[in-house]
Write the structure tokens for this entry.
Amino acid sequence: MAKTSYKKPDYYARKAKAEGYAARSVFKLENIDKKHRLFHKGLKVLDLGAAPGSWMQYTAAKVGKSGKVVGVDINPLSRGLSLRETFLQGDVLAMEPEELKDEFGVFDLVLSDLAPKTTGHKDTDHFRSVQLAFRALCFAEALLRPGGSLLVKVFQGQEFEELVKTLRTRFQKVITLKPEGSRPESREMFILGQAIKSSE
């Protein structure tokens, strides 16, 4: 069984290296994009939890020269940036969305690959993950243009359904996803909220 469980992660890690991506997590985003068409040319995208930078790489290629990608992470990137990418090193729990709005305006899409430093205690890791997911929602509510979307990662647990219910009050359509590229043993899920509702 152990051999089978590591075969897939090794495949995606090798694939990421061969294609020049900073991390294997890019293939989770690619899989979701292929199914739900997240990107098109000219989009402005905010990537929370951007390090080491593979999601920014993929997104920058998708939005093209007329698009813009802004990444935020408490850790530094492990790669250089293209002209259409901007990276800010900072803690999303300490940063205010208005800081980004003042500098960059509104966004079409917010991505969140935020994850806590895992403790090995499933409930603790889950609750911290949910806290980060709600923080991503806070950024989305403040920074998305009308009709914009949010893709957020979260660890499964007892608060998962409550988070989904909250997102359904904020977005026209909400989809839960377990993309290819996620490790079989991982409890991570992604939630896609499409077309944010007006706050009025």
In short: The beta strands are 44-48, 68-73, 85-89, 107-112, 144-155, 171-177, 188-196. The chain is about 40% helix and 25% strand.
